[in-house]
């Protein structure tokens, strides 16, 4: 095979796809893997910042960067596009105010699907600290799907809750 033929065979066809197709493909990956695509080529350097699905799970995080700092960085460097799906499954984040901030960032970016599992034991495996859902979750106008996978304190407002919610899944 000649050098010209080899270049044709090895051509990067994925990078030639439209951004929307790349976003869709990347939306099936964990956010840690999506961010790593910056090393593929110049074309991919900023693609990760527009992927409409954010998937954070500290049980699978190798701790190369502290998990809360990683989420802070992703949300800070992300562009202003809407977030379709925000999944947060955490057993180690103890700063519940920080989690509220992350949820607020997703809500400000018109989140449609919210998938939460927040557990923290604070060194005592028998006594889980319970996360209080912020009121903004109940009043989010774009939220269509809410999945709760752990115990939460729910102080819902008296009116205006879940205006467009189509699916609620609660597991205790």
Structure report:
The chain is an alpha/beta fold and 172 residues long. It contains six helices and seven strands, in the order αααβαβαββαβββ. The protein has helices at residues 3-9, 19-26, 31-35, 67-77, 96-108, 135-139, and strands at 53-57, 85-90, 113-118, 131-132, 145-148, 152-153, 167-170.
Characterize the largest beta sheet: strand count, sense, and whether it forms a barrel: 5 strands, parallel
Total DSSP helices: 6
One letter per element, helices H and strands E, the order comes to: HHHEHEHEEHEEE
Instruction: Order the strands across the largest sheet as they lie in space.
Output: 1-2-3-5-7
> How many angstroms separate the termini?
60 Å
Offer a few descriptive terms.
172 residues, alpha/beta, 5-stranded parallel beta sheet, globular, Putative F-box domain, leucine-rich repeat domain, L domain-containing protein, F-box_AtFBL13-like
């Amino acid at each position: 095979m000649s050098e010209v033929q080899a270049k044709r065979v090895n051509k990067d066809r994925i990078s030639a796809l439209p951004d929307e197709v790349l976003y869709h493909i990347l939306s099936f990956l964990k956010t840690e893997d999506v961010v790593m695509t910056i090393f593929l080529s110049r074309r991919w350097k900023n693609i990760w910042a527009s992927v409409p699905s954010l998937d954070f799970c500290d049980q699978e995080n190798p701790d190369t960067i502290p998990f809360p700092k990683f989420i802070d960085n992703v949300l800070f460097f992300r562009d202003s596009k809407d977030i379709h799906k925000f999944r947060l499954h955490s057993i180690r984040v103890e700063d519940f105010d920080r989690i509220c901030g992350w949820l607020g960032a997703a809500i400000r970016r018109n989140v449609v699907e919210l998938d939460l599992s927040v557990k923290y034991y604070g060194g005592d495996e028998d006594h889980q600290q319970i996360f209080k859902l912020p009121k903004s979750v109940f009043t989010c106008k774009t939220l269509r799907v809410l999945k709760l996978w752990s115990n939460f304190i729910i102080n819902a407002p008296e009116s205006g809750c879940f205006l467009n919610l189509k699916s609620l899944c609660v597991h205790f």
